[in-house]
Write a structure and sequence with these properties.
CATH architecture of the largest domain: 2-Layer Sandwich
CATH topology of the largest domain: Herpes Virus-1
Radius of gyration: 34 Å
Order of helices and strands: HEEHEEEEHEEHEH
GO molecular function: ubiquitin protein ligase activity; zinc ion binding
Number of domains: 3
Structural class: alpha+beta
Organism: Cynoglossus semilaevis
CATH superfamily of the largest domain: Zinc/RING finger domain, C3HC4 (zinc finger)
Distance between the termini: 129 Å
CATH class of the largest domain: Alpha Beta
Subcellular location: Cytoplasm
Keywords: Coiled coil, Cytoplasm, Metal-binding, Microtubule, Zinc, Zinc-finger
Strand order of the largest sheet: 2-1-6
Helix content: 40-55%
Number of helices: 5
Main location: cytoplasm
């Protein structure tokens, strides 16, 4: 095969030679590649299923892959992941028994909303997030903090979970973590209140015991004085 040096322009087109540099792929372009099905090559169509090897497929594509007569098809409810060739064993439910990747589905919805917003105008400013009081991810500045990393015990964004530093971590929704921590705090407060009640009762008992000792001492002293007189 013959290669032409012009084929390796390292990020510059003909127009760049006149002084204009080609803009590198945006984070949204990279995200679109991450959200593409390896079978249909289009963006994932819901429902999206996640294989044991952690690769994703459209469930309809997974069904076609399983049912069709192609090199990936095997008898006995088994097919191979088209990305890494991992052997996927299906139960009696078939592809409907595969777990749905709700996180990827939510990211697809957010991506489509972002694209619809950017298509409403021609300027790049449309790609900027609207002003919001919601905290934004420091790693992905266009993404809102919307999930909680249970492993690292820090809030993060969906993109950090998909292909960022929390990719292999256990995550949960902010709402569920809030409810759990709220319940734990409420239980801790109840425990403190109950402990305070028991402590107060113990202090009252000690006060009563001290007064009883003082009364007994006073009575003994009075009797001693009467006997001496």
């Amino acid at each position: 095969m013959t290669f032409n040096c012009a084929d390796f322009d390292i990020g510059f087109s003909d127009s760049s030679r006149s002084g204009t540099m080609v803009r590198p792929p945006s984070p949204m372009d990279s995200l679109e590649k991450q959200l593409s099905c390896p079978i249909c090559l289009d963006m994932f169509t819901k429902p999206v299923v996640i294989l044991p090897c952690q690769h994703n497929l459209c469930r309809s594509c997974a069904s076609d892959l399983y049912d069709s007569r192609n090199p990936y098809r095997f008898s006995g409810g088994v097919f191979r992941c088209p990305t890494c060739r991992f052997e996927v064993v299906l139960d009696r439910h078939g592809v409907h028994g595969l777990q749905r990747n709700l996180l990827v589905e939510n990211i697809i919805d957010l991506y489509k909303q972002q694209q619809e917003g950017s298509n409403s105008g021609d300027t790049e400013t449309n790609l900027k997030p609207k002003e919001s009081k919601d905290p934004m991810c420091q790693e992905h500045e266009e993404e809102r903090i919307n999930i909680y990393c249970v492993t690292c015990q820090v809030p993060t964004c969906s993109m950090c979970k998909v292909f960022g530093q929390h990719k292999d971590c256990e995550v949960a929704t902010l709402a569920s973590v809030y409810q759990i921590q709220k319940g734990e705090l409420s239980n801790a407060i109840d425990t403190l209140v109950a402990s305070n009640g028991r402590l107060q009762a113990l202090l009252n008992q000690m006060d009563d015991a001290c007064r009883a000792v003082q009364d007994n001492a006073q009575h003994a002293n009075d009797r001693a004085m009467l006997a001496a007189g």
